[in-house]
Structures
1.
Amino acid sequence: MRNELSYWIRGSGLEIVIIASVTLLLLRLFDNGAHVIERRMLRKAEDDVTSRTRGALIQAGRYGLSFATGTVAVLLIVSKFSIPLGSLIPVATVAGTGLGFGAQRVVGDFLAGFFLVTERQFGVGDMIKVSAVGTENGIVGVVEEVTLRVTRIRRLNGDVVIFPNSVLQQVSNMSRDWARVLIEVPVPVASDVNRVSRKIDQIGAELYDDEQWRSDILEPPTVSGVEQLEEGSIYLRVTGRTLPGRQWDVERELRRRIALEPRMDSSGSNPVYSTDDESSGE
């Protein structure tokens, strides 16, 4: 018995050690190689979005190679115990079915993350709103990390929220191309609406021409029309375009400038402007 054990250790046992050692070495090489390739590709990337996409694809490739290598190594090691691989098929089928049900969400997370990154839906630094399909309310925050499995955002109040990628059903990207200033200005019903509108347009043009704000504003905020009527008040909607992520600062400054205007009497010759922002983003 001892001779058989000694013979097995010198034969199959040694082969198992070699297989395990080579597998660990390959996994380490895959990991280091992925980091080297990623650094080189990031230096050649044209922009941040491209670099994030390439990084995620490299990560996916590394995971795939590691999984394939580990699977082959396990099969080789099992064969060294003189266990027929055919007898393991029923067990593997049952185990695979159980793992499949258990890992269904994880696989969904990885697939959703893969398409999220390759399609460049959003990236680190973008401000997004995550909400249920068909609704406007949701969680607004800045993306801090995007992996193939999860997305991490920091809300405006500082909280960090982590989402599995498979639950991101409706995402609004507030940092893509341009953003919109959107505020409502209530004025008394007796006011001269045309006069008030011209004055607000003038304030928007002055803000647009201000050197401090000129680089943030793509078009001067103007009155787009009467949004709604209420007892004693008329609401004028003011809109304009800004750089992504700068709309809230521009809205605050625009409200401040409008609020500094003199108060309005019933004739409309001395307008007051107070603002209600329906989309402050906070």
2.
Amino acid sequence: MKLLAIVVALLGWLLPLAGLALTASNTIRLALCLLGIGMCTFAILGMLNRAHMKHAIWKQ
């Protein structure tokens, strides 16, 4: 689960970079950047935090 969250966060970071090569339209680039920020936020706060909380040190 942690590895999947890291991969999703990395893809969210690479999405705006790919948008630079795909289009010259600023609107589409902005949409890709916002989608990338959303993916990174979901991966870090949603998936990675949930996986960490399952094995937290204070729960042992």
